[in-house]
Amino acid sequence: MAMQRKTNVRLPPEVNRILYIRNLPYKITAEEMYDIFGKYGAIRQIRVGTTPETKGTAFVVYEDIFDAKNACDHLSGFNVCNRYLVVLYYQANKAFKKIDTEKKKDEIEKMKTKFGVSTDEK
User: Which of 28, 65, 86, 99 would you label with 113, given CA atoms 20 to 30 Å apart?
Assistant: First the structure.
């Protein structure tokens, strides 16, 4: 598949080889994931969420960025077991932003208690 691609094609900056999939059925297996996503190109890795917070999500890493773009374009909204898939490009800065803000809030609270600052507005 990679041989037929133009080498001078410019892709948007958010496009990468890693796809983040949401709204998966909880009982989906890795083999079923390979069947669905393998149609669009060579897959390097699939990670399916197993903890209560990550159930229904997965990461699919393709060998080629164009295969990932093709899969994202075609599988977003795809129906699997009466659930419509949400296929997004993985963006590390957005994934860790929520964790970072929670850490910052904890640090601020610790500093407030350490220095005896209260922000009660009356």
Answer: 99
Tally of CB atoms within 10 A around 58: 20
**Sheet (strand 58-62) strand order:** 43-48, 58-62, 18-22, 86-89
Q: In sequence order, which ranges of 1-122 are alpha helices (DSSP H)?
A: 30-37, 65-75, 92-95, 97-115
Q: Roughly what angle, to the nearest 10 degrees, separates helices 30-37 and 65-75?
A: 100
Tens-place pLDDT, residues 95-119: 666 667 778 888 888 888 888 887 6
Closest to 4 measured CA to CA, from 56, 41, 44, 43: 41
Q: What is the largest CA-CA distance in the chain?
A: 68
- Write down the pLDDT at residue 32: 92
109 torsion bin: left (phi>0), alpha (psi -120 to 50), beta (else): alpha
pLDDT tens by residue, 31-51: 999 999 999 999 999 999 999
Measured between alpha carbons, how far is 6 from 62 in angstroms, rounded to an integer? 18
